[in-house]
């Protein structure tokens, strides 16, 4: 009976994780689709639609009311959501609602099972695990998205540099490359389009670049923002700066690959060593067994 209960708890955790992941991915896809339509319907109308949809999300408001009151905790959660691709403010309430709903449902189920079958109180650790599970999933989504952005950044900068050498301006090249690579690399194209929208509505370019680095806290993006801000202050060639930066990124990537390849031999040796030692041990033990058998 205890094994069946543990199996049921495991199935509940799996289903809860799967439902949470699907809900977050669906919300993210909807938000990306709305941002892609932004160029056709205008920024003002898009903001109005988002405001109306956030007012209709009652469970987002409930989650925001149940969430923490600490400003630091809310900002931390918002940064994780933005890094994972959930930029709208209502996602904070949705995150806290899903988090506390999972804990409440699992706690009620644990109480019911404990009262009905008198199982071990260890079952009450399940709500604690579900309390931490949404944060783990959110961090995983954020890390995967940021890694995809970092991997596609050198190619994006190379195509931007080619467009600038063809006669387009700095911002015009970013816009053109974002339109061309939107299907292949949607994450980085979406971020650069958002950067262009901020500059378009009047945000100072350096402030928009700093916000771009805050939304995507990776070493590559922070380095790119520093290069662009320094270029804004010094007035040097943006094309040369982007070319040098992308070249350094390719060199760092090549050195990382060489380092991983150098470590592969040691890791393979640890895996192969037991298989190499096994025949020798069999021969030694076999010889001893035969000697003992003949002695008897």
| SSE order | HHHHHHHHHHHH
Beta-strand portion reads under 5%
Distance between the ends: 52 Å
Shape: flat
SS-derived structural category: mainly alpha
Number of contiguous helices: 12
Biggest β-sheet strands, sense, barrel: none
User: What share of residues is helical?
Assistant: over 70%
Low-confidence blocks of residues: 37-55
User: What do the pLDDT scores average to?
Assistant: 77
Radius of gyration, in angstroms, nearest whole number: 27 Å
**Total strand count, please?**
0
Membrane topology: Multi-pass membrane protein
Main location: membrane
Keywords: Cell membrane, Membrane, Transmembrane, Transmembrane helix
InterPro entries: T2SS_GspF_dom (IPR018076)
How would you portray this structure in words?
It contains twelve helices and no strands. The protein has helices spanning 2-36, 38-41, 43-56, 58-66, 71-84, 90-117, 125-165, 170-180, 186-200, 205-215, 219-234, 238-295. Helix 7 (125-165) crosses helix 12 (238-295). The longest helix has 58 residues, at 238-295. It is flat, with a radius of gyration of 27 Å. It starts with a helix and ends with a helix.
Task: Sum this structure up briefly.
The protein has 296 residues and is mostly helical. The protein has twelve helices and no strands. The longest helix has 58 residues, at 238-295.
Which characteristics define this entry?
296 residues, single chain, mainly alpha, flat
What's the topology here?
Elements lengths: L1 H35 L1 H4 L1 H14 L1 H9 L4 H14 L5 H28 L7 H41 L4 H11 L5 H15 L4 H11 L3 H16 L3 H58 L1
Helix pairs in contact: 1-6, 1-7, 4-6, 5-7, 6-7, 7-8, 7-12, 8-9, 9-10, 10-11, 11-12
Keywords: Cell membrane, Membrane, Transmembrane, Transmembrane helix
Subcellular location: Cell membrane
Organism: Thiomicrorhabdus heinhorstiae
